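Newbie here. two chains, one complex. Structure please?
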Amino acid sequence: MDDLLTGFAQALTPENLIWALIGVTIGTAVGVLPGIGPALTVALLLPITFRLEPAAALIMFAGIYYGGMYGGSTTSILLNTPGESSSVATALEGNKMARAGRGAAALATAAIGSFVAGTIGTIALTAAAPLVADIAIGFGPPEYVALMAVAFVTVSAMLGPSLLRGGASLVIGATIGLIGIDTLTGQPRLTFGVPSLLDGIDVVIVVVALFALSETFAHVLEGTGRSRVEPVRGAPMLSRADFRRSWPAWLRGTALGFPIGSLPAGGAEVPTFLSYSLEKRLSKHPEEFGHGAIEGVAGPEAANNAAAAGVLVPLLTIGLPTSATAAVILTAFQSYGLQPGPQLFTESGDLVWALIASLYIGNVLLLVLNLPLVKVWARLLTIPAYGIYAGVLLFACLGTFAAGGTIADLVVLTVLGLIGLLMRQAGVPVAPAIVGLILAPLAEQQLRRALSLSDGDWTVLVSSPLTVILWLIVVMALVMPILWRLRSASRKTS
Amino acid sequence: MTEPDAPPAENDQARASLLLGLIMVLGAVVVLVDAARLRDSDDAVGPAAAPSLIGTLLGLLGGALAWQGARSGRTHAGEDRGKRRLWRLAALVVTLIAFAFVLPIFGYVLSSAALFTAAALLLGAPHPGRVVAYGWTLAAVAFLIFDRLIGLSLPAGPWGF
């Protein structure tokens, strides 16, 4: 608790508050642009924070992160173009409400729901993170290998329409992660003699390529220069009836979002859909679902934000990113000189608590900023698509240049953008690729560390009860979908 | 999967799956050949183990994707429809590559303004004059913020911006 207060003291200086405000504002402004989800917002805006001192950078970053999340849901509701799979559920009912002229109420319930869920989620993070870090400090390489195996399997199964497509994406990411010098033997892998590939390909470049360039390419390919905007009518306020229907949904969404998000498994999308179907089942107005039911916006949006706070638990305490956004956050932290993991809280405790305090502050700023400014954000959507995507391209190249700084990086960006376009066309989700890119090298490193500690004895991987349980989860996650399919198939034939 | 008229979107997806799968198989070969070249170490898991595993998985999943694509798509439909779109895409890719090489020579602002203009026109912007103005403004503002204010050093052309 004292730690948190110190964190607030550090974050609440006038200078840092201004950084937080700037972060929230530009985070929302970029996140609002169609097709730009939180992961891409954070990746595109990362260069802005590079030259700040670590505390200010983290505080601004927290603002960008939460602003990007909120901006993304605004677009999902108004345009039905969710930038990331975790806003798909929000868009289902939210866009129906917008089309029925109830966009203001949908945005209000999303904003307040985000605030409620974000605040409760951050409180839960404050309580859970030190505990998990205490447990994780006893983890050795075998536990890490098993945890990463769980993340691999669940990310490919949950972040995609099928295990094949999710797995394909994960492996594409893992392949990109191979590029660079092998840390143990110092040999270059897959560098083809290009010097700038020796350090590997920066995560920011991959995120920008797979999310931003592929989207721009898709628009060029399909010639879709125009998108329709639903005007926001009325003030973004909730009527009493709307409020009565919203608040239980916010709380239920939060209750689903945080625990599931904080599991070391593929994360933020599952609770949003669970929340959607839960609200549909519990609603007193089930006939409104599919035509703009407010619970269907309130619940998933709260689940999304609570999960976003939950994802920070394995990220900060174990160093395990389970979503594309978390993968970018991990890179950001490393560029500020922070190494997420069990030691983070003891080694850079003051910075982490300043970050957590800024999450609270960011949440309040968002609410204050967004309810009055909803119409301004909605006007950003009237920028024609060609302007948005040409601008995105410009900033994508800028971000790439800031991250890598060579011509070769820009060529890599273009090539990866084409691969991203192909993945998109083939219905292969891109988010697992980002997770694979980060996790595969980490898993390799931990596996080799585990085996060199045990002198090549493979049984070290199942040497503790926790590892056995985790490997059983891996097997179940792989076998269950197949059994499921066989069972439903046999039921159909009988 | 032999319905006479698969919807064009599904057909596109099948073709993209086939192409992506084939690229993955090709990538798998590259990864495996590269892995075979590595000097082994005396550790239990050497430097080639991860690439071999990932390469194998890449090949298997790519093969499955390609097979699925080939099975559900018909290859001969909609050949001309996509030609012009592909040309536009190719033009954008060429623009991006050109941007990469021109950047150190002409500096950030001019190169980026040109990139913006070309991209916006390829995306279907109606007023070329206005697009050029937007491009200049955006590139100049980005340069001022990132180079002058934040201190990332962006490439300056012979005229210093």
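Moderator note: Chain B is about 70% helix and 0% strand. Confidence is low (pLDDT under 50) at residues 1-6 of chain B. Thread marked as resolved.
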